[in-house]
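Structure (tokenized):
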């Protein structure tokens, strides 16, 4: 009973943390584990050398202690990753009402904002799906910021949903080869006349995150004039995800109906 009560208390304490605090906790644990491994591995090698020389050294107990600390931090990480639940995981998508009633109105207002934010003029990406794909790009010393717009005139098909991302990324990479050497912030906005199952798959499932490859998926339905911001999948990157989410909210600020946020 005491063990169960302690477990419940620990879970309650974890639930009180916000997403950023949970991410920091996980990253601190991983950093400690990596540092210990960096220290322990050379100690183990030195310990083997001392054994060959048949001489006792303080290295052996130090290596053992370091190894045990590594094991403990690994167990703590496993516990945290299996018990921490991010609030983003409980939310399907962020829904926002906008004033724009058509793609032309939406895209025109967004393009003006992107020009003010120092993005390059739009670039078209050819495709065989009957939709319009364009991107705006901004480069800094360490980062490429890319905003992709996919405009579907009729219905978002499974083929478009499954392939637009890879197709667009490969095309942009050919145009900007050095992009691969920098961090990439990739926001993709899929504009459709009305909601559909394929659109919901994007807005509800979210997009995978990876090191230096941060993404945000946004869908826009003009039948109800709503924007849907999809949640992230890899919640360990929630800080980067929130930066991109706040960025797109800033870009759409002049189109958002304030009471809808």
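Design, position by position:
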């Amino acid at each position: 009973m005491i063990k169960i009560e302690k477990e419940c208390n620990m879970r309650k304490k974890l639930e009180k943390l916000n997403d950023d605090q949970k991410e920091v906790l996980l990253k601190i644990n991983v950093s400690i584990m990596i540092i210990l491994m960096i220290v322990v591995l050379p100690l183990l090698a030195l310990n083997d050398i001392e054994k060959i020389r048949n001489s006792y050294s303080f290295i052996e107990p130090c290596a053992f202690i370091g190894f045990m600390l590594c094991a403990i931090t690994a167990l703590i990480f496993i516990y945290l990753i299996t018990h921490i639940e991010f609030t983003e995981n409980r939310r399907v998508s962020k829904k926002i009402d906008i004033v724009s009633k058509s793609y032309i109105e939406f895209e025109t207002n967004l393009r003006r904002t992107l020009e003010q934010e120092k993005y390059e003029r739009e670039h078209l990406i050819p495709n065989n799906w009957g939709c319009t794909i364009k991107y705006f790009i901004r480069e800094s010393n360490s980062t490429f910021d890319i905003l992709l717009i996919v405009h579907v005139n009729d219905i978002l098909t499974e083929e478009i949903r499954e392939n637009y991302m890879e197709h667009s990324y490969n095309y942009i990479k050919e145009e900007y080869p050095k992009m691969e050497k920098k961090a990439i912030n990739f926001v993709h906005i899929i504009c459709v006349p009305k909601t559909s199952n394929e659109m919901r798959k994007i807005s509800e499932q979210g997009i995978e995150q990876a090191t230096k490859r941060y993404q945000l998926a946004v869908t826009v339905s003009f039948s109800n004039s709503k924007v849907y911001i999809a949640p992230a999948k890899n919640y360990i990157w929630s800080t980067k995800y929130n930066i991109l989410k706040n960025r797109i909210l800033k870009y759409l600020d002049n189109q958002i109906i304030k009471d809808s946020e």
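Reviewer-requested clarification: The helical segments are 2-16, 19-52, 59-83, 103-116, 158-175, 197-205, 238-251. Residues 19-52 form the longest helix (34 residues).
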